[in-house]
Amino acid sequence: MIDVKQLKYFVTIAEEGQITKAAQKLHIAQPPLSQQLKQLEEELGVPLFDRKAKKMELTAPGKAFYEKAKRLLAQLDDAVAEVKEIEEGTAGTLSIGCVKSCFYYLAQAIRHFHEQAPNVTFHLREGDTFSICQLLYERHIDIGIVRLPIDSADYDVIRLPGERYVGVLPAQWKTGQTALCMRDFADWPLLLLHRVHGAGQYERVIEECRRHGFEPNVLCECPDATILLSLVAQGLGATIVPQSTVALFRLPGIKVLEIIDSSMTAEAAAILDRQRYLPKSARTFLDVLQTAAARAAGGQHEER
């Protein structure tokens, strides 16, 4: 079988034109180099060099084999370099799934991470918390960014800073208010985020409404934040969502107001499959994500 060492020896001989010079460049003795060339020619069944000339010149088969061998060695060098860069976290592809209400965190993190590792590319998937968990379980993504709660038995959970909920009203509603109380929502139709499967933000908002003494009038349930905000902009009703959701998807036709008497906080987390190897690029990205989320949460507190 032809091995990489024989290919390197052959290419060096072809480029130097002499066994002696090739041996000096490879830092080996001349006899074993000659023996390796002989074995290669026997393996191929063709002469690679014309030994009658003053200088070792490639035969027609030798010229063809030289071009192929040189290309194979270059590809091998590229593969080794790429593997090292991936292990160092400076190259490769990072697959991330994210719920839309957390896209603000994700966008900030990708921007900062790209400055550190410009050769890492991203493959992004979107869905609700249940579908992101499924994508992680099926190994379609490396990292999931979801809203809590989740069943954490199968995952490592890295909590991100909590954030407050805000009220979002149609701009066409002339309420004259600069801030809201939970009781204000008793008189309005509500459009709420609701997971396809499981309990989450929807149940949290309903519970908060009941804690303030009223049963909300839920006009629409939807897992997609952009659709929900678009419906609010059309005047169908109000919604209550995490502040970062409107920070990224702030559409014309809506107004965002603080809810001054609510203790609700939206909790998000990055989740990992604890059974899988996590490349360094993913580990570095998680650090960047946590920093970006903390910075965003700090900005929210300053706005208060």
UniProtKB/TrEMBL annotation:
Tagged with keyword Transit peptide: no
GO MF term (any one): DNA-binding transcription factor activity
One protein family per Pfam: HTH_1
CDD domains: PBP2_LTTR_substrate
GO cellular component: protein-DNA complex
Domain HTH lysR-type: from-to ranges: 2-59
Gene3D superfamilies given in the database record: 3.40.190.290, Winged helix-like DNA-binding domain superfamily/Winged helix DNA-binding domain
Keywords: DNA-binding, Transcription, Transcription regulation
Listed PANTHER family: HTH-TYPE TRANSCRIPTIONAL REGULATOR CYNR, TRANSCRIPTIONAL DUAL REGULATOR HCAR-RELATED
Stated family: Belongs to the LysR transcriptional regulatory family.
UniProt protein name: LysR family transcriptional regulator
Organism (species): Geobacillus thermopakistaniensis (strain MAS1)
Lineage: Bacteria, Bacillati, Bacillota, Bacilli, Bacillales
